[in-house]
Design goal:
two-stranded antiparallel sheet, 3-stranded mixed β-sheet, alpha+beta, elongated, 29% helix
């Protein structure tokens, strides 16, 4: 009875994992274990929302969001090809420990939108930029040093 139960569980696992990623599978830092290929591909496009660039400035932090610059991830067939290369007969090996994979994805963005977003950042507005006043560089022994002749706090 136990042998029949083990064979049934093993066979069920082979059937299930022939269309799903094995447990503990991570692709490009995205957990896709137990997902079918369509869900895994969607996980990459959904993950795009979490990609942001933070610019920490003295008085503020500004963020460039991937969606604001028209970023698009084209998954192509890489995820499906990776799944197809996996052996569903060895599904039980992923029960213990994480299996990490890396695939190359095509990421594009709109250069005009990026330029617009960067130009609208507070740190690039003329009123927020302090131009250098009488600054000069002087060589001291084996190094160069920047001297400022004004007392404004930067």
């Amino acid at each position: 009875v136990i042998l029949i139960l083990l064979i049934a569980v093993y066979g069920g696992g082979v059937y299930y994992y022939s269309s799903h990623f094995p447990h503990n599978t991570v692709i490009n830092h995205v957990k896709v274990g137990e997902m079918d290929t369509a869900a895994a591909e969607k996980a990459f496009t959904d993950d795009l929302a979490s990609h942001k660039i933070s610019l920490k400035e003295k008085e503020r932090t500004e963020v460039i969001d991937a969606n604001d610059v028209g970023t698009v991830i084209n998954v192509g067939s890489q995820i499906t090809n990776l799944h197809d290369s996996m052996n569903p007969w060895l599904w039980f090996t992923n029960l213990f420990g994480e299996k990490k994979y890396t695939v190359k994805l095509d990421v594009t963005y709109d250069e005009a939108k990026l330029k617009e977003v960067v130009n609208n950042l507070e740190c690039f507005k003329k009123e927020n930029v302090i131009a250098p006043k009488s600054a000069y560089i002087k060589q001291e022994t084996a190094s160069l040093r920047l001297f400022r002749k004004f007392s404004e706090t930067l």
